[in-house]
Amino acid sequence: MLSVQMLTSLALLSALLMKYAASVVNNYRVRKQMPPGPPGLPLLGNIFQLTRSPWLRFVEWKDHYGSIFSLNLAGQPTVVINDFTTAADLLDRRSHIYSSRPRFIVANEILTGNMILSFMEYGPLWRKMRRAAHEAFNIRSSQSNRRLQEKGSVVLASSLLEDSSQWEEILQRSTASTVLCAIYDQAATEMGLDAIGGRVGEMLKRLSNACLPGRYLVEYFPMILHLPDMLAKWKREGKEFFKKDTIMFEGLMDSVRMKMNAGETRACLATALIEDEKNYDLGAQKKSLASRNYCDDWYNGYLIPKGTLVIWNTWGMNRDPKYFPDYEEFRPERYLDDAGQLSEPIPDTHAQGHFTYGSGKRYAEPLLM
């Protein structure tokens, strides 16, 4: 005769199995209504089909499934966009649905301590940060940075002429240095800013890698985050990077405060934040608790369920043979017409001819620089 304890255990197991079966049936029903996509493994889906360069795999799948397709990344429904029109339809024209962000455990929580605007969930704190960035990077301030841009261009051209084999590293360092000058009002020769620009470039590369789908399993199995640091090398190293980066940026802010006290600084993002810190309420804060504003959506007859991770494949979009038949060639003049003027921009690209700076409410403010 079965004991009461065994009967209770069997009842609990039966309930769990029924719940799991219902979940499988519901997920299958939802998946059938989503855009088509490659088949995957049970439970894990397509997570192990992603390479270390997922944008290349996305282009392969685009050729087979179309410009919009879906994936299952260990239970996380995911939609990948590969053309300008679809990206504009969803991310621009329906930005009220697609303005939030996934959690980004490694990039947002470990590497940057929930303090980077690009990774914040859509909510009050994001809006305050966005407003501060807009005031520092509007058209008026971008005009005041013209001489800075010209000087940076000369340094960049000189560096490329000296050693063009390192062009990628040179471009990253130049971009980071220019942005740092605009944010912290530091000349390129001050405080070893070129070296700091190199460090910022390395930080940006770490963040980009951390955001790649499939790079860290903790993004799909958050319970891994609770492992002790000694058992999680990625977590231990991430905290160390965050500590070093924080010291670097605090040093830059201290330099701006000293210049402000001496009356020697010009308007920049750092001065705006320091002067209006009370208005923006941007002091040390815990992670924003604003919920994602996703909801079920339909596009071209396909369901994009609430909570779906939406990825736009910028690499593939900017190499669309429809608009860039010779995309492998370095040919800036492709953006000019026969008269040497800017040609008609590609539709749905914010008149830029590409989709590099994002979209909707997440459109990059530094573009004005």
Could you give a short description of this structure?
The chain has 369 residues and is mostly helical.
In the predicted model, the low-confidence regions spanning at least 5 consecutive residues are: 282-293
Structure annotation, total helices: 13
Question: Termini, distance in Å?
Answer: 78 Å
- Let me know the largest β-sheet: 3 strands, mixed
Classify the helix fraction into a percent range: 40-55%
Number of domains: 2
Beta-strand segment tally? 5
**Overall body shape:** globular
Beta-strand portion reads: 5-15%
**Mean pLDDT over the residues:** 78
What structural category characterises the helix and strand content?
mainly alpha
Give the helices and strands, then pairings.
Layout (H helix, E strand, L loop, with lengths): L3 H30 L20 H12 L2 E6 L2 E6 L2 H9 L12 H6 L13 H13 L2 H6 L1 H17 L4 H18 L8 H18 L22 H30 L6 H7 L1 H4 L16 E3 L2 E3 L4 E4 L1 H4 L52
Parallel strand pairs: 2-5
Antiparallel strand pairs: 1-2, 3-4
Helix pairs in contact: 5-11, 7-8, 8-9
Subcellular location: Membrane
Protein name: Cytochrome P450
Pfam family, one: p450
